[in-house]
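Q: Give me the 3D complex with zinc ion.
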Amino acid sequence: MSNVPYSLAEDALGDANVEVIEVGTRDGLQIERTIVPTAEKITLINTMLASGLRSIEVTSFVSPKAVPQMADAEQVLAGIVRRPDTVLMALVPNMRAAERACTTPLDDGVLLCSASNTHNRKNLNRSIDETLAGLPSVAATLHAGGIGVRGAVATAFGCPFEGDIAIGDVVSIARAYAAAGAHGVTLSDTTGMATPLNIRSVVRAVRAALPAMELTLHLHNTRGIGLGNALAGLAEGIRRFDSSIGGLGGCPFAPGATGNICTEDLVYLLEECGYATGVDLERAIGVARKMESLLGRPLTGQVMRAGPRLRLHPADAVRAAQG
Ligand code: ZN
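A: Here is the predicted complex, encoded as structure tokens.
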């Protein structure tokens, strides 16, 4: 453990290592109409691993009818060339998903429950209580298959249907995950309603309830303050963030949802603040460019346009003002 050179409030003595979890091929591609061929997904993920990203949320074991883009979950997982520190994750929304996951080389299954009943019904077609009642058996199936369990709390910082969410509701879902044997909880800002202040209060409340739980922030840049929220999380000691290459992403069941915070932009911010991500920025930018060409449209990432901070341009290439 080394100290962070740029101190964020009480974070001065915190660990400088930050885990950037790539979710682009799941959270990003799930809403894309262009079906990316399985072989291209595998190449993308292998290139992500080569750029230094270690943890990848690869896919989702949803019904192929509901999300055709994720129909190749098993094939994609089978095609990935692992490195020693690779952690492959996927969304496991129900028992059928857990059974499918157990036939693959998955490391961690991510269970899902929204802190808003309305969003949970849209997303999973069940109430929160019904979802929580099903968690132990889904988790037990994953554990029996040698797969670790993480739990994601969607709309933890606000819901587009219900507005503000009671922090106690987020805490109870996190406790249900802990009771089911989850080793991590992801607090998800599904539609970009988090602010630095509610990041602080939700993180503090969950940590007070579950001090040993590994917490991850899943942030969207819907209102342009995604990286500001990441800084607020860092100041609270959070060292794990979901992000997507090029800023891909959204949620098909939430109006107005836009992309995740962008992996290259997050890596750039973290590294410039003195945190270590293990990610090679230029190579991550290369993956974002590849994703753009696969989808045939520009992505929202910004560092991929401007390049690293010290990418200099020949002065002769720019005309002087004519006074
Ligand atoms: Zn998301």
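A quick observation: The pocket of zinc ion is lined by residues 27, 188, 190, 218, 220, 249, 251, 260 (CB under 6 Å).
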